[in-house]
Structure formats: structure tokens, C-alpha cells
């Protein structure tokens, strides 16, 4: 029995560390399960970790290193800036790469070897539009976003979507990564007084924003994509998270989906904390690598790419994919998703959104 | 008679309430060795700093060979041939003695660009070594100037002021800490310069033997004013000066 | 050091640099290349900080200017050889500009001004999307092709960078051993005295910044084809601090300090990677330990060791001349 | 009182002192002379614990004090006024003076003494609230000398007090030192202003190349033609 | 109107936090003539001591705070001084600055590896009740922060300038050679400096973390902004840190609200550069005196 190497290249230190470590830990669980299940093509899987320090240049070097050291697939990175660089290397070496990044541009470069583990912003955000038009019947909205490539991507898609839906964006509030003081942001929104605010930030930023919003008693509903209702955000923001709404691709709170419940339980037992969205993404990425490699029948990058495009995996046949999932010819993914709201300090699924 | 080498007109300088220099004027002519003495804090060093552009005077003008240099920067003034030393030791501590002295001369040779492409010592090693050996520092040529003894640094300082071959030199306490034998050599050297090149000197000094035997004329400053002026023997006999400065 | 030892050592080092990447994986070659590039950037800062004593926390922003200029021009179809000099000229001009505050403020105030400048450059790169691609960065810059010699592959690109590093070092060597070098040091040690000796401290200060910046720009111009992707985040204040770290760890004010420093800052984490999550902890601890034991930088380590194992006593130099009073 | 026995020492690997031996009797003034770079200041540093002593012994009242720390030397009743400028730049003149008596348990007495020395050097009173750095060179030196008088030392090491002081103040300082000697304080002084210094001293010490060359009564040294020729400016050597 | 008031008040509240951290910079400068680039991490760490004391040892909040304070003083004060500051200080400021940069990485990464990479909530010492002032909202916590930084500035200024120990500390920083010759216990003065600094960092940590959340990377931005605040205020005056901190807090909020959010980090910097150019010694700083 041989071993097959999986290169996990992620943001284990630097600003991306929270996302990166969750991604890693999700993958760790997946690899453990895969090995218990006989590995990939009867080969044991060895996971090698590479820390990019959240630095794109380092990430590029590390993807190169992982491939030099014999990795047959790459898992990572999460920050779009890094992925944009290192996906070139994987492409040059015809190595399949599952990424956690959500920036639209990743799948627009015609790279056949890069695949998402969650929908990009250009799929996730439009899924929300219906909520603004039908449920809220909003005419004027605001957007508060973190000014990095992640936030900017989401914000651009949102503004575009609103225009299409005929909704006016009357407050467009950018904030810095790792910002701590949201007083100005919130007071600007308060002054503009839109009917709802789309909040697109990373975890702690979301929490700090929510806290300030509560302090200044911001009256309108706050709606986010993925992060805003994550367990971590609720833990950090406490009562201030109450009522926040988000569209979530796949959420650990959707425990009635059997695979998700199992994963969440196992994760909590192993790491003593709740899995985040990033953990699930890593988990799904690792399992997909197994499924697709076995579908192809050998570790071959070209064939893998061939197989991936237009592939749909049903949760019934491939339980660890968690939800029925498809990848299009660009590597973009689609699957059903949820609307979640924080009620009594816990996220509750308030609706499902079909795959788009 | 030609224009004085240095003409100081009505210089005033105060520091937040303290009037250090209160309207001082004097002329120095070519070939003179002028002594500037006065009690501690009478404004001598401040006057030097105003003359040489290290401090901006509140009022007054300075002329060097007839040219108004009041607003001129110290480096340009130096290029006009005005050299100086500071009262406080001011060698470049982490450079060798040789480098210290070459530096003092290099800016007077060639242009900025020619210095970049020319020889690394600007052709000054020999001249610098002569000065070094004159001040009995040959064995310290490649030592960092900061690890010299007080008196030795004082000598390097003086050598630096002389290196560029200036026509007017202002020395602030050149004798302090220098061994008497070496001081006699220094005096000899200043006199030789003065005689051979007509170099003009203005010297602040508290060592009366040195001042009285070196200078051709002396100005006494007290509380920012000139209180006396004259030949050394006149000053030595002047009762005001004795009371204010020399002591009984 | 004996007279023949130094050239011999240099030839040896160069030979080492030539054979080092042979037979290594792409990753090692890539890392060696970034070592050379950061050595260039650190060499520039070493001039500004180590020789001329002007604190600058903005070296990364000059890398950015060099990198973006080269990137935009090569993307527009220019050859690197034409794009790079333009970047350097721009860096020289901006470096002069940044030097102006240094004429007025010193020490930590200067540190602040340069730091603010770095932040400003970062924000412009991020916000002016029409030009710089904003936070998405620029991607797909070609590596220079010289007809017979194409640098597309990792190894040729390494030799290309090595060549440029050698040229840059020779030029730097020329500068620091010329009278300019002496004037830079004089500025560091005692600007008032230097001014009184005819050193035009204004001009020398500005030059210290401008030349140092050009080296930053050159490093940036090389990063562009190396990584083939640039984004504002790679040129933030943190990266300036990292270059500062290289200079001090190597030995500020010593010619070879930057090479050592860049080596440690870039290679050491690579070597420690086997320790998984702990490598940054170990790395930072090692840096601290090193500074405690050789505060003058790694370059001083040889002397320290010699001192330790072969302690020598020297008699005072004037003993030879003999006493005059017996 | 103070005795040095064959002291060797220096900076880093360079040995500057090559066997310095002498003794200083109690309640006397000894002036050290010698060319620039002879090692005069280095001897003071060696005594006060600021130098790396390679071999030899320093005895104070018969007790071995070799390699003791400056703070211990102060506790033994030794104070030191170094060459050059040595003030705390951003503190006021008064607070600089106060630091001179910082080790004394009796602060009331220190305050009294500060008033006394300010009588002696009126400039200090006038400028008591100014920052020390703002003073002129000579004013800073006065501050330093005054600061050394605030404790009741047994032994004062004073390195070229005359640098920068106007002639009347030099006389004032010398007289103060003589008064102190008459009260039983021992004084070891370096002076280039050697004729005046030797004239008020009991003993003289000639140092050259880090070795003691002569050690005798001050009058004897003043009268010695070799000393006069070599160190007191009696003769101008050929100019190189 | 109420928006302007809100922005000003919030700016002051944030500014007082910056001030509290900035004081550490000026203190270390005044007493050791160096810059502690790990200051931000010094403020990040104590909160984690408290979390460990509460989480792993089950202590209630107040005793845990006490444990946090003691540990901070030991680790950031005593250990820092003995292992890093003392050996490196004699070799000049810049070397120590670099060492503290490395220390910053060390602390940050250690917390991340041994505690958590994720942000943690942190309980507040003071009630977080909102108070309405003419339509603008501040929390009680904000008011306490402001009052405490004011108090610290006054106390420290008095200590440094009015007590003999304080002056000995200044003497040690400004001219250690002279201090030593005069019999000042130089090592002890340095120890005092770092002890006070550590205690201050712990205090700042306990006040800030409820708002900022406990996270290993908090020190980066905080340290940088506080450094800038200290400089702008004039490095050599404790009260400068307060003025600098408040100024930056207010400017930042005003810029973000009324001018540009994209460049909110830049505009205050540009203004501050202008200030520095006009007053090179900083807003509250005094000039260092004659140089010739
Ligand atoms: N930068 C300054 N700030 C405040 N006061 C100053 C400054 N420079 C000089 N002074 C004051 O101005 C007066 C004159 O000082 P200056 O240094 O010119 O004296 P001096 O004649 O050279 O004395 P000395 O013989 O002691 O060197 C002194 O009272 C001094 O305290
Ligand atoms: N810090 C130092 N490092 C290395 N060498 C030094 C240091 N200080 C002094 N020296 C050397 O030691 C020798 C003696 O110096 P010292 O200061 O004792 O001389 P000195 O007799 O006091 O001279 P001066 O009359 O000039 O004050 C000199 O040759 C000097 O170069
Ligand atoms: Mg003077
Ligand atoms: Mg001496």
C-alpha cells in the first residue's frame, strides 16, 4: 500500500489564521475519515501542511514546494489574493486545487485545475436578492463591507444585483480589515437610514460591527452572506447578534442534514469548538478529492480536471459531500443553500434557497 | 584698506528670555589672530554659532570679505574658506582618525559627481597623514576617533578645521584638555599658517597664557556685550576685565 | 583580515551562489531567488539607515513603486529591460521627495513620516483600482526573454537575478567606498559637524533616501516577474519592518550585512518549517537570542567567536615609539 | 588612603594601563600629569570600577576594592568627576544637583548643601530651573563640579576640572579643593593646567604610556627640567 | 448635529484607548530612550492570561484579573527586562527596537498556537450601558476609559517629575553613564520602568478587550496607531500621549464619516505629518535643547 500526498496550503498565521486553521482542521477530520475508509484508491492519504503566513508570495512558493514534494492535489488557499497567485503554479503543473476563496475572479481566468468548495460571491450574493425584493420589499438599502479583496468582491456583486433588481443603494460604507472602531460606519448608516443593510465582513469585524450597531440602536435589519450568523460571531457579539440574518451556503447549524450533523459533532469533540464555514469547506474539498480521484481511477491531474467539469455529486451516493453539489465548466460550485437568522442567541434556518 | 575678512554687525540672539548676545559688532582683518574671551555664559559660543550659520541670529548681519553671509548655510560658508571647531568634542566617533580628517578636506575637491567616480580618498591621504603625524597621532591613524582620549579628540578636531586650508578659522576652546607641550606645537602651527598663508583666526579660549601669547588683539565679552577690546597687555591690565573674568 | 583573504572569500561566495540552486527543486530555487531580491532591497535600506543613519520604514513602498511600474509596463507590452529603469527613476524621484521631511525631523518623527508614507502608498495601490487593479492586484506579468536566454523557467530566472544582484552590489560598493560613503557616515554620526566641514547635508540626506529607494525599486522590479502577481498587501508596513529586520539582523552599516540578514529572515523560516505551527515562535525567539548575543548583527559573529576561542591581548599602539621620560 | 599596585587594564583587547602603581596619602592633593593619551583618565576609570582590570590591585584604606562597582565606590566615600560633559541633559539644573546627593540617606542635608554650592556658584541659582543641556560649556562644568561637592566624600577623583572654566572660576575651584583637603578630604586630580595645579598640590604624578614615570612632591616635579620640557610646554619640538 | 456629536464622542472614546497604549510608548521612551515595538502585543497578552485563569483554572472574573495583572508584571515586566532589555539596551536603541519587533511576533504566535487563532469574547469590568447625550450614544465603559487614561497621565507625570525615583529614571534614560557615576541604581530604574509599563499594559488590556475582543493579532494595528499617537503628542511628554491618542481617534472618525472611508487611514496621517513638520517636537513635546 502506498501513500498519496495531499498538500494543504493555507493561512495558518497572519491575519488569515482563523480561517486557515479551521480549513486545516476540517481537512484533518476528512483525512482521518478517508484513511479509516481505506484511503484513496486503497492508498493511505498523507496530509502535508504549509503555512502561507497570509502572504501571497509565500503561498506561491509553498504550492510549488508542495508539488515538488509530490502532492497530487492542493487544498487551499482561502484568501483570494493568495489563490490568485498560487493557482498559476498548480495550473502549470496540472495539479488539481480546491480553494476556499470566494472572489469572483478566481473562476474567470479559464484555469481548468481550480475548483471552489463553496459558491463564489457572484453566486452567493445573488441568492440573497430574492430576500431583499420579495421578503423585505426594500427600495433603499445600504452596504457595509470590509475593504479587502474578499469584501470588495462581495460588495461589487451586491451593488450590481441591486441595480438589476431596481433597488437603490443609498449608503456604501467601506471599512478596513482588522478595524476596531465602527462608530463612524454605523452613524453613517443611521444617518442615511436605508430599509436594510447588507453586511459583508470577516468574523470579528462582523461582531464588532454588530456591537456598535446595537449600541447606536441601528433600527433596520442587518443581512449578511455566510459570516454574519456564524457561531463565532454570535459568541463574540453576544446579544448584539440577535436578529441578524444571513444567507449561508452550508452551515453547521443545519444539523437536520445528516452529514453536517455528524461532522459538526466530530469536529467539536476533536477541537473543542464549533466548526465554521471554512471548516466545512475544507472537509468537503478533501472528500471531493477522494471521490473524484476514485471516479477517475488514478491520480492524474488532467483526467481529474476533465471529470470535474460539469460534475454533479448527489449526497445520497456520496454522503460526505453533505449536499447535492455541482461544478460547472469553470470550477464554480453550486448547491442548495439556507437563510439563517439569529434567534435567542442561536442561528435558526428560516428558509432554503435552491441551487442556482 | 581692503574689506575686513569678517565683519560682524550688531548680532543679537536670545533663547526664551535669556539674551545671550546683545548687539555685538566687530571687524577682523586679514592676518589677524583675534582672541575672544569672557566669563562662562557670556555668549561667545552663541556668537560663533550665529556667525557660522548653526544658529539663526534674531538680528544683525555677518559679512565675510565684504559679502553678506547671514543667510548662508554652514556648508557653503565652509566652502568659502571659513573653518571652525566646536567647544564640545565633535569628531565622528565611528570613523577612523584618517577618515575624519579626509572628510574635512574632501568636499573642497572636485564636484559632487567627480567625487563619486574619483579615488576613494579624493587624493587626500598624504595631506591627512601629514596632519596626523604633526599632532602625534600616527599610531592612531586607523583607530576609531571615538575611542581616543579627550585631548587626542581635541587635536583631531583642530586638524579637521585646518585640513581644508581655510582662510578664516574660528576655534572654540582649542586648548582645553590639550597637553601643554602639544599646545605649544599647536600655537606654533597656527602662527606659521598665519604668517605663511595669511590665515585669519578667531579664538575663544579660557587659557590666558595661550591667548595672550597667541593673539594680536582681544575682545572681551560679558553678558552678551563687548566690554573691552585691545592688545593682550591692555586687556591684562584692564580692571573691568580683571573683575569680571580674570580674577585676582 | 589578510589582504588576499577578502577577494578569495568573495570569489568563493559567488561560486557558491552559482552552484547553490543546481539540482534543487523549483521551490528551493524560488526561495533563493527571493533571498537575492530581498538582499537588494535590504542593501538599499542599509545605505539609508546603516550608513547615513536616516530611519526609513518605507522600503516596501519603494518595492511597490518598482513592482507596479514594471508590472504595468510589461503588461502593456514593454520589455522588462525598458520598464525597469523607468521604475527606478520613479523611485529616485519619490525617494528624493520622501527625503525632504528628513531635513526637518529626525529619529522617531522621521520613522513616523516614512511609516505614514508607506501606508499612503498602500492605500493608493488598493483604492485606485483603475490603475493598479485594487485589492485584486495585477496578474500574469511575463518574465523577461532575451532571445537566446529566456528566464521563463525558475533556474534561468535565478541566474538572471544573480547577475543583477552582482551588478547592484558592485555599484553599491562603489558608492560606499567613494567620498560619498564617507559623507553618508558623517551625516549619521554628527550632521552639525559635517555641515561645518562643507558637507552639503541636505543633498546627502536626500541622496541617501533616493539611492536607497532605487534599490527598493530594483527589488520590486524583480519581484514582479518572479511572482507574476502583485497586490497591495505585499507592500504594507509590515514588509518594511521585515526589511528593517534584515538590515539589523545582518548588521547595519556593514556591506555584507543585508545579504546575511535577508538570508536569515527568508531562509530560517523555511528551514524551520518542519516544526509545523511553531516555526514562527522558534524563529522569533532565535532572532531575539541572536540580538542578545551579537547585537551588532550576524556580521559580527565571526569576530565574536574569534575573541572567544583565541582571546588576544594587544599592547597600546604608541608603546613601540618608546617612552620619552625614562 | 588609596593605593594602586601594578594595575593592568584596558578597553576590549587593548591594554592601556601597563602597570600603574602609586599611593595617595590621606588629606592630600595629588595632581596627575602626562601627555594626551597617556592613560590618566583610564586610571580614574580603573579606580572607580569603570574599567576592565586585567591584573593588579586597588586598595582603599587598606581594603581591596579592585573591580568594585561605581555604586560600591560611592558607598566607600569616593566620588568622581569625569572629563568632558556629564550632565543629565533634560533635567533642570536643580535636579541635576539633587542627583549628586541621591545616595545620601540624609536628604535634608543634601538640600542644605545645594543651597551652599549655589552660593559658591551663583550662576547655578540663577539658572536653577533651566534644563542642563541649555547651559554653556563652562556653566555645565560648574554644575558638575558643584554636584561632586554634595556628599561628604573621603576621596574625590576629579578629571581636568579647568576645561572650559573661566580663570576666576578655576581659582575658585582650586581653592575649594584646598579647603576640602584641609578638612581631611583626599583629592586626586588630572590637570593639563599643570603649573597652577602642581603649585597647589602636595604631590605630583607623571604618567606616560600607561605607566607611572615619576611620583614625587609637587615642588620637586615643578622644578624638574625634564618634566618641564616634556609635559609643561617648555620646549617646542620640531614640526613634522 | 447629533451625528457630529456622535462621531466626536465616539472618537474621544476610541482615542482614550489609543492614549492608554500610547502612554506606554512615552514612558519607555522617557525612562529608557527606546521604543517597544511589541507594545501592542503587551496589551494583547494580559487579556489571555485572564482568559486562561478563568477558562482553565475556573477562577471568577475579578480574581482572574488580579492573576492576569500579576502574570503580566512578571512576564512583560521582569522577564522582559532581564532577558531582553537589559542585555540589549547598552547596544543602542535600534537593536532593541528590532528585538521587540521579534518579541511581538513571538507573543502573537505563541498566543495563536497555544490558545486560539480565533477572537474570544472578554467580560467587561464596567457596565456597558448606553448613555444618551443629546441624541448621541456613549457607553459607561467609554467614560471610564477616558477618565482612567486621564488619571494615568496625571499620576505618571507627577511620578516622573515630582519624585526622586522618577527623576532617577529619567536620568538613567538620558545619560546612563552619568547616572551610574552618581550612584543611581541603573538596573533597578530600568526594572521600575518596565514594571510600570507592564502594569499599564495590563490595565489597558482589561479596558480595551471587551470592546476589541481578545485576539492574538490585536496588537498589530493597536501598537501602530498608539505609536503614531505617541509621536504626534511629542514623545518626551506623557501628556502628549493623551493628546495624540484623542486627536487620532477623533480625526479618524471625522474622516471616515465626512470625507472618505477608503482613505480613512490616510487623511489623519497626512494631517499629522503637517503637524509634525510645523512642530517637529510634537504637539505637546518640548525641544531637546541646544545641539551646538
Ligand atoms: N539653546 C539654548 N537654549 C537656552 N539657552 C541657551 C542656549 N544656548 C545658549 N544658551 C544660553 O546663552 C548663554 C550664552 O551661552 P554660550 O554658550 O554662548 O556661552 P559661552 O560664552 O560660550 O560660555 P562658555 O565659556 O562657558 O562656553 C548662556 O547663559 C546659555 O545658558
Ligand atoms: N573607550 C575607549 N576605547 C578604546 N580605547 C580607548 C578608550 N578610551 C581611551 N582609549 C585609549 O586609551 C589611551 C588612554 O586614554 P585616556 O583617556 O586615559 O588618556 P588621558 O591620559 O586621559 O589623555 P587626555 O589628556 O587626552 O585626557 C588612549 O590612547 C586612547 O586612545
Ligand atoms: Mg562656549
Ligand atoms: Mg583624559
UniProtKB/TrEMBL annotation, chain B:
Which InterPro entries does the annotation name? AAA+_ATPase, ABC_AA/LPS_Transport, ABC_transporter-like_ATP-bd, BCA_ABC_TP_C, P-loop_NTPase
Q: Which Pfam families match?
A: ABC_tran, BCA_ABC_TP_C
Report what the protein is called: Amino acid/amide ABC transporter ATP-binding protein 1 (HAAT family)
Please name the GO terms that the record assigns under molecular function.
ATP binding; ATP hydrolysis activity
Q: Which UniProt keywords apply?
A: ATP-binding, Nucleotide-binding, Transport
Please tell me whether the keyword Nucleotide-binding is annotated for this protein: yes
Q: Which organism is it from?
A: Pseudaminobacter salicylatoxidans
Domain (ABC transporter) ranges: 6-248
Coiled-coil positions: none
Q: Which CDD domains match?
A: ABC_Mj1267_LivG_branched (cd03219)
Which GO CC annotations does the UniProt entry carry?
Answer: plasma membrane
From TrEMBL, chain C:
> In terms of one coarse class, where is the protein primarily found?
membrane
Question: How the protein sits in the membrane?
Answer: Multi-pass membrane protein
**What terms describe the molecular function in GO for this protein?**
branched-chain amino acid transmembrane transporter activity
Q: Record's superkingdom? A: Bacteria
Quote the Pfam families the UniProt record gives: BPD_transp_2
TM ranges: 35-53, 60-78, 84-102, 109-125, 157-176, 204-223, 243-268, 280-301
- The answer to whether the entry has keyword Amino-acid biosynthesis is no
Keyword Transmembrane helix recorded = yes
Q: Which UniProt keywords apply?
A: Cell membrane, Membrane, Transmembrane, Transmembrane helix
Compartment(s)? Cell membrane
Q: One GO term of the cellular component aspect? A: plasma membrane
Q: What is the protein named?
A: Amino acid/amide ABC transporter membrane protein 2 (HAAT family)
Organism expressing this protein natively = Pseudaminobacter salicylatoxidans
Which lineage? Bacteria, Pseudomonadati, Pseudomonadota, Alphaproteobacteria, Hyphomicrobiales
From TrEMBL, chain D:
Record keywords: Amino-acid transport, ATP-binding, Nucleotide-binding, Transport
Query: One GO molecular function term?
Result: branched-chain amino acid transmembrane transporter activity
An example of a Gene Ontology BP annotation on this entry?
L-amino acid transport
Which residues does the UniProt record annotate as the domain ABC transporter?
Answer: 2-234
Q: Which Pfam families match?
A: ABC_tran (PF00005)
Family recorded in the similarity comment: Belongs to the ABC transporter superfamily.
What is the name attached to this protein's record? Amino acid/amide ABC transporter ATP-binding protein 2 (HAAT family)
Q: Which organism is it from?
A: Pseudaminobacter salicylatoxidans
Q: What lineage, starting at the top, does this entry show?
A: Bacteria, Pseudomonadati, Pseudomonadota, Alphaproteobacteria, Hyphomicrobiales
UniProtKB/TrEMBL annotation, chain E:
Major location category of this protein: membrane
Cellular component (GO) terms are:
plasma membrane
Membrane topology per the record? Answer: Multi-pass membrane protein
Q: Name one GO molecular function term.
A: transmembrane transporter activity
Biological process annotations from GO? amino acid transport
> Where's it found, cell-wise?
Cell membrane
User: What InterPro entries has UniProt attached to this entry?
Assistant: ABC_transp_permease (IPR001851), BCAA_transport_permease (IPR052157)
The residue ranges crossing the membrane are: 43-76, 88-107, 133-160, 190-213, 225-251, 263-282
Keywords in alphabetical order, please. Amino-acid transport, Cell membrane, Membrane, Transmembrane, Transmembrane helix, Transport
List the PANTHER family hit by this protein, alphabetically: ABC TRANSPORTER PERMEASE PROTEIN (PTHR11795:SF450), BRANCHED-CHAIN AMINO ACID TRANSPORT SYSTEM PERMEASE PROTEIN LIVH (PTHR11795)
The family classification in the record reads:
Belongs to the binding-protein-dependent transport system permease family. LivHM subfamily.
Q: What is this protein called?
A: Amino acid/amide ABC transporter membrane protein 1 (HAAT family)
| Taxonomic source organism | Pseudaminobacter salicylatoxidans
